[in-house]
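LAB NOTEBOOK - FOLDING QUEUE
OPERATOR: T.R.
BATCH SIZE: 2
PURPOSE: Compare the predicted structure-token outputs for two unrelated chains run back to back under identical settings.
PRIORITY: normal
REVIEWER: second-year student, initials M.K.

ITEM 1
FIELD SEQUENCE / FIELD STRUCTURE:
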Amino acid sequence: MIKRKLVTSLLTFFISTLIITLLVPIDILLGEYNEPRDFFIFFDDFIIYSIYIGAGIFLYGLPLSIVIEKILKKSKEARFFFTFAFHLLLGIIPFFLLWFFTLFSVMISVLFFIVDEILRTINSKSFKK
């Protein structure tokens, strides 16, 4: 389980950092949007976003996802719904600290849930063979 969660965290980290860097350059957040974009500016934005997103995923999302999994291990029928609900709820909680990043936090927590469920399905199919 922990190995799957680490892979989920890494995949979510790379996917979300790439998507957010492409869609919302740092210049837009700071109100200093400059029209010409080149690779070096994109790379700088990617590095800056990766620091914050990585800290959020690895220090907040990963441990809480492991706790959610341990709590809901015994519930078979409602596990999918409650896991999704807890991931969504824990994605909303940073609203109270950094309200501006709540949308990013919710999107990343849902992406984490989706990637985790895909990896869970792949693992369960490989064990059945």
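ITEM 2
FIELD SEQUENCE / FIELD STRUCTURE:
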Amino acid sequence: MKKLKVIFFVIFTVLFYSLISSQIDVAHAANKETSNLLKNGGFEETIESKEWLNSQGPADWSQWKASGDPELVVDNQISHSGKQSIKIQASSDSRASVEQDVMVISGKEYKLSDWVKTDKVTSNHGARLRLTFLGDKKVYEYSNEVTGTSDWKHIEKIVKVPEGYNTVRIQNFLEKGTGTVWFDDIKSVAK
């Protein structure tokens, strides 16, 4: 009788731990599918930086001003969610982005999404996401663009990482043009 209790206890313990382990694996897989690979995608954390208007820039993000004289600022007046967004404002033809490099897996698919608001954006390509796969030769991918004046629009792009690439530069981009664009809540998740 004592042996039977021990056997029952061992079987129960093994089954219990197997069940718990499988639940943890399922939760981990689900979390992996929804984990944002980008840091500070809502632009809520800031650091001191002379590159940015008001000497405050978003932590983990850098800026690139390719042409013109655009102003890039963390905006605490307008946001899609949270308390802040990124604003790029250009009164003359300008080209600029707010960007972050992310490690990716060659051949894997990723879904990128962003919220974009525009005010009088005139440009051939407007405001959009640009992905630059970094390697011996750069490979570019673009989301749909937003031009004119619009309230918050959700844009998405699903991309497959080209073979041989493991880093992508994700850019909240105002292509050569004028106007004001806000970006917020950018995400990149593995599919």
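REVIEWER COMMENT (ITEM 2): Residues 110 and 191 are 5 Å apart (CA to CA).
FOLLOW-UP: none requested
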